[in-house]
Write a structure and sequence with these properties.
140 residues, mainly alpha, two-stranded antiparallel ribbon, 6% strand, transmembrane helix, membrane, Membrane protein, transmembrane
Length: 140
């Protein structure tokens, strides 16, 4: 197993370690919570854990559903196969859940949500890919 990538080679293919999957999911969750926290603080909302979770839950639910839908555990660091669908799921499902519960879905909020979660959920994967590529290059 390569420590840098968290990948194990079996029969010519690569499989992802459980640790890599857990870390990728945790990073996604942290970024969704960060998004909700930034949003709450920019609107002068009370900084409580329940308030944060109340804001984040639709996007966390969307994130979880998207992870299951794309089976992100197979390639959790992939930008296109996992990052883009997880980002889209978090935004679309999150907004649908907000609309279903009477929470705000103003067009400007949808744009800010899409851009911010895109930078967070796809961006960290792009940085990870770059780091892994540079590590592989230096270990040759």
């Amino acid at each position: 197993m390569s420590a840098a990538s968290g990948l194990r080679r079996r029969g010519g293919g690569a499989s992802v370690s459980g640790r890599t999957v857990a870390i990728a999911l945790a990073v996604d969750v942290v970024f969704v919570l960060l998004f909700a926290g930034i949003g709450r603080s920019s609107h002068a909302r009370a900084e409580t854990l329940l308030g944060l979770l109340g804001t984040a839950w639709p996007f966390l639910a969307g994130l979880g559903i998207a992870w299951l839908a794309v089976l992100a555990a197979g390639r959790p660091l992939a930008i296109v196969r996992t990052g883009l669908p997880v980002w889209a799921g978090a935004v679309v499902i999150g907004m649908l859940l907000r609309a279903a519960t009477g929470a705000g879905t103003a067009p400007s909020f949808i744009v800010v949500t899409a851009v911010t979660l895109g930078v967070f959920l796809v961006g960290w994967r792009a940085i990870a890919a770059l780091v892994l590529r540079l590590r592989a290059r230096t270990s040759r």
